[in-house]
Write a structure and sequence with these properties.
Blueprint: H1 3-20, H2 24-27, E1 31-32, H3 35-47, E2 56-60, E3 64-65, E4 100-101, E5 103-106, E6 109-112, H4 113-119, H5 125-147, H6 170-177, E7 182-183, E8 186-188, E9 191-194, E10 197-199, H7 208-219, H8 222-225, E11 230-234, H9 236-243, H10 253-260, E12 267-268, E13 271-274, E14 284-288, E15 292-297, E16 302-308, E17 313-326, E18 333-335, E19 338-340, H11 355-381
Parallel strand pairs: 2-15, 7-18, 10-19, 11-13
Antiparallel strand pairs: 1-16, 3-4, 5-17, 6-17, 8-9, 11-14, 12-13, 14-18, 15-17, 16-17
Helix pairs in contact: 3-5
Organism: Enterobacter sichuanensis
Protein name: Phage major capsid protein, P2 family
Pfam family, one: Phage_cap_P2
Length: about 375
């Protein structure tokens, strides 16, 4: 580490110590972050991601307890003939299912001296260190939320690159605690018709719009079905197939072109479509975004910053107890194992786009424009 870098890094440690009410020496030992510092860090993590800004990140005092809920669990209006019985009040905040349990998640990072030497040239040295850490923490939370299926005592990033073994995420919570809210196969009269949900001509649903409408009608509680906050979080592949006009299966070209005019609205089944990092490619999640939460236990955020010359790097060890929570399962539906059927020969739909065909189309369009321009210029000269 260069002399200038050392000076700025020492200033960073001094600021950390001041904020947390400990000595600089104690920074290299594991310490508990001050409540105000922990809250500020959580806010920074949430602000670093547009998706996290739309869900709940909530501090809780207890490591385990009841979910907070959305506050609109059921209707409350009604009539009672009090000559026959007493009026029965209803708890509109009641939600069924299990509560939450916060478990420890480690976020350990290493910054090489060479990287710090590079950052030391800038005035925002301390901010760069902070932002490098919190941006990755934000992305990891989203990754766990959509892909986590279990919590191992020792996780294996090589085997589970999407952090499937760090904690149980939202999608797995739905599978485990409310499987009736999951559509992953087609069943008729108790018999499995198809192990996948087939979309396309000859399939179970003609298109993605029909699939979403069917899922809302069948799985979402009546008091949520007309909720204007309801969205569909969709995988990259499905959204691409919905909004590339040439891939818009089983629609004439005129309708495909019309669909292209509303790409910015991104609606599937009359619900706003939301793309989020690391969401499974062939799945959909119908919910309000504020139905998804991350609880973190107050007083559980611990940290240690160690200068390790043996490895030519600075090591940052952080941990916090957290849980991924679906507030109300009545307002959620997970649709997965979606299979897009190939376009049938002789149909009106155009073949599916690929990266190669898109490039060919763009190249041909550019070449055509240049040829036309050249021809026009030649005609004017003649």
């Amino acid at each position: 580490m260069k002399k200038e870098t050392r000076f700025k890094f020492n200033g960073y440690l001094t600021q950390l110590a001041k904020l947390n009410g400990v000595s600089v020496i104690d920074i290299t030992s594991k310490y508990t972050a001050e409540p105000s510092v922990a809250q500020t860090l959580e806010t920074k993590i949430q602000e670093s991601s547009s998706f996290l800004q739309k869900i709940n990140i909530v501090p809780v005092d207890e490591q385990s307890g009841e979910r907070l809920g959305l506050g609109i669990g059921s209707s409350i209006a009604g009539n009672t003939d009090t000559t026959q019985k007493d009026r029965e009040p209803v708890d509109p905040t009641y939600i069924d299912g299990e509560g939450y349990k916060c478990t420890q998640t480690n976020s350990d990072t290493a910054l090489p001296y060479a990287k710090l030497d590079l950052w030391a040239k800038f005035q925002d040295f301390q901010t760069r260190i902070r932002d490098a850490i919190i941006t990755r923490q934000a992305l990891d939370r989203i990754m766990i939320g959509f892909n986590g299926v279990k919590r191992e005592k020792t996780s294996d990033r090589a085997t589970y690159p999407l952090l499937q073994d760090v904690n149980i995420g939202w999608l797995e919570k739905i599978r485990q605690e409310k499987p009736v809210q999951v559509m992953d196969k087609i069943v008729s009269e108790g018999e499995v018709i198809s192990q996948t949900i087939r979309v396309g001509k000859g399939g179970d649903f003609l298109n993605l719009d029909a699939l979403v409408m069917g899922a809302v009608n069948e799985k979402i509680a009546p008091w949520y079905q007309e909720d204007t906050e309801l969205v569909v979080i969709v995988g990259r592949q499905l959204l691409a197939d919905k909004y590339f006009p040439i891939v818009n299966r089983d629609q004439p070209n005129s309708e495909a072109l019309a669909a292209d005019l509303i790409v910015s609205q991104k609606r599937i089944g009359n619900l706003p479509a939301v793309r989020a990092p690391f969401f499974p490619a062939n799945a959909m999640l119908i919910t309000r975004l504020d139905n998804l939460s991350i609880y973190w236990q107050s007083g559980s955020r611990r940290r240690s910053v160690i200068d390790n010359p043996k490895r030519d790097r600075v090591e940052n060890f952080e941990s916090v107890n957290e849980a991924y929570v679906v507030e109300d399962y009545d307002g959620v539906c997970l649709v997965e194992n979606i299979e897009l059927l190939p376009v049938q020969a002789g149909g009106n739909a155009s073949p599916a786009l690929t990266t190669e065909t898109i490039q060919e189309i763009v190249t041909a369009a550019v070449k055509g424009a240049l040829d036309a321009q050249a021809a026009g210029g030649a005609g004017a000269g003649a």
